[in-house]
Structure formats: C-alpha cells, structure tokens
Amino acid sequence: MTDQTAADNMMSGKAWDDFCDALKEAGKIVQRPEVPNDPFNKALGYRFLTALLRGGLESAMHYADPQFPGFFRLADETKKLLNDNPDNYYQNCVIDGRFDYRIYGTRGTVNWFSIGSKGSSTDVAVMVDTGYIDSRQMTFNPDGSFEIIASATKKDGNWLPLAPTSRSIIVRQTFGDRKAEKIADIQIECLNPERPNNNPTPESVERGLIGAASFVKNIGNMTIAWEELYRKHINQLPSDDQERCQRAGGDAAIHYYQSYWKLADDEAMLVTLDDIPECQTWNLQLSNYWMESLEYRFFKVCVNKHTAHYEPDGSVKIVIANRDPGPKYPNWLNTLGHGEGGMLGRYVGAKVFPPEMKSQILKVHELP
After folding, report:
1. Max alpha carbon distance in the chain (Å)?
2. Where in the chain is the domain with CATH 2.60.120.600?
3. Cβ atoms 160, 149 nearer than 8 A
4. What's the first-to-final CA gap in the chain, in angstroms?
5. Is the torsion defined by CA of 146, 249, 280, 75 positive or negative?
C-alpha cells in the first residue's frame, strides 16, 4: 500500500522542492573556508557536485532495487571521487544480503579484478566488509566464462560471502595498459526476488531523491575532511590509515598511500620507489583538490607496474610537475596546470608494504 505522506508529497511537488532545497544547501560546501580561494578550484567544486549528483541518482534511484539489480559506475571517466584510480574500471551494485545472487560473465584480459560485498552500519558514511573474492581465487571455464554465487549461505565453487546487512557490491577491474586490455563482462541477477517487477512507487522516488542529495552532501564534506588530513603531510606519501580507507569502500587487497601535493610552476616532486614489493600491480596517480583523478583520457597522470620505466637496479623514479622535465624522465606525471590536489599510491596484492613512497621537492632544473 502506498504511504499517504509520500503520495501527498508527489502530488503537491513537495518531494521535488525538498530535493532542490537540499542541493542548494549542499552547494555551500564549495564556499567552505578550507577550499582554495580561487575561481578555478571553485568552478571545479561545482562541477564535482554535479558529478556526485549523477552518481547519487544512479545509486539511490535508477539502480536502487536489490531484487532487480544491475551494475552501474559510481566512478567513471567523467564521474570521479575520493582519488578514483585511473587504472580501474569500477562497477557498483545495490543488493540486499537477505537475497541470493548470481554474478556471471567472461574473463576479459584485465590483469586483475576483485568483487567485494559491503554492509551497512549505524554510520551511513561507513562501509563494512562482508565478503570478498578476486580473480586469483576464482575458477574459470576454458572459454573464460565464470559464475559466482553471492549469498549468506556458503556455496561450492566461486562464492562471494554476504551478510544479512550486505547492501552493495563493488567491482574493481585493474588495467595494466588501459588502451590495450579488455574488461571482463560482468552481469548480475537476483535468484529469489519477492516482487514481480521493479516499478517505482512514490516512496521509492522520494527515498531516491533524498538519498541522491545526501550523497552529494556527505561525499562533498568527506572530501574536504580528508584533504585537511592529508595536508598535514603535504608532498609526502606515507602509508595511509588502512582502516579508514576500508570504511570508505577500499579494497582489502590494496595498501594505500594517500596524500596531498602542492607545487609551484617551476617545482617538481621526485618520487623514488626503490623497495617495490612483489605484487599484482602498483600505481601512483594525481588528482585535483576535489580528489577527482586528473584527465587520464588524454594525459599521463598515472603510472603503474606495467607502464613504468625502470632503472637498471629495479627502482622507479617518477617526476610530478607542470612542465615536461625531458626525455630522461619518462615517468613524468603532468599536473595539467593545477597547483595542488590529492595523490594516491597503491600496492595491490602485496604481502609486505614499505612505510612510505619516498619523495622530495626540487626545482625542475635541479632534477638530478
């Protein structure tokens, strides 16, 4: 039966008015005093909020029915958040741990992919790990096809554990060379839905509008809070708080080095990786102030295990600068005219982790 309040809010337009008012309130995030006070970063901020709104509407409205699920992309080439990885193809899915799901598809050629289930907690901004499987642990058919059962009850074969509190699935497909590799084709279906269709209701639409606006506000404020933390070790890359990364949806197989960079036009950051552990892959990326990865479709803003140039001793030297330091530095990451922003290093599937990714600031002409 339709909730009368939700029905009345649809009839009067109050649901839409409340949604618009919530978005107007969220817009004040860009004017917070912590945000760099210049037109460029303010404009980036408002663009960022529109991307969050697109992602929020998909997760809270258009893909929000756990009985009729589908994978969508909360972060992609134009929707970015929380230092999204340029080497990843992200996919998200809304589920309910009380149901069983079949995840199926074909392998593709990506170096590695993981699928994790996340649960709800008393804090809406916190995700709880409830299950995990990755391509190293999976069995594939000779033609590359595969099937995974996601359920709270253990199953034979490829199994993704769920809990009754599981509310989402996150897929990370990680490229070695994004332009040369093919992603895995991954689909999902609910095996025991209780409803005959996924028609929207006044309640679901109102809930979706509220959820989308809340997503914009929550992620916007979280971004600023994280950047304030990372400014405390500006231009350094120490090991991050792994538990905090996991609570925000991080992958259990990834060790994160999250930080903040700020460089003058004639400055460069030299990052030296001389103790790289054995791992599936590693990378280092640049983002803007709003923790959106820089424009990786057209520029080199990220380097990884498979694309890096190595020194004879096996180390890697990475230069972060607005100016091209020349052919002696093939691992140049272009700041694209940004003066500051987020950055993130990762080791994926390693068993040991260096305490930091070593960095130093030099003038571009002083690079050794």
Report:
1. 72
2. 234-366
3. yes
4. 72
5. positive
CA gap 148, 157 in Å, rounded: 7
Per-residue b or e along 86-125, where b marks 16 or more CB atoms closer than 10 Å to that residue's CB: bbbbbbbbbbbbbbbbebbbbbbebbbbbbbbbbbeeeee
324-361: per-residue pLDDT in tens? 999 999 999 999 999 999 999 999 999 999 999 999 99
Type of residue numbered 131: G
Q: Tell the residue number behind the tokens 């230092």, with chain if given.
A: 83
Residues 6+ apart with CB under 8 A from 333: 284, 285, 286, 300, 301, 302, 303, 318, 319, 320, 321
State the helix-helix crossing angle for 202-230 and 39-57, rounded to 10 degrees.
140
The answer regarding whether domain 234-366 maps to CATH 3.30.360.10 reads no
Question: What's the pLDDT tens digit per position in 109-146?
Answer: 998 999 999 997 656 567 899 999 999 999 999 999 99
Q: Tell me the whole-structure pTM to 2 decimals.
A: 0.95
The predicted structure's pLDDT at residue 122: 59
Q: Hey, what CATH class is 63-193 in? A: mainly beta
Per-residue model confidence (pLDDT) at position 126: 77
Give the residue-averaged pLDDT of 259-278: 97
Residues near 27 by Cβ (< 8 Å), separated by ≥ 6? 46, 49
CATH 2.60.120.1600 residue spans of the chain = 63-193
Rounded to the nearest 10°, the torsion over CA 349, 354, 355, 360 is -120
Whether 84 contacts 321, CB under 8 Å: no
Q: What's the pLDDT score for residue 1?
A: 43
Sequence-ordered alpha helix ranges (H) in the chain: 4-12, 14-26, 39-57, 202-230, 242-247
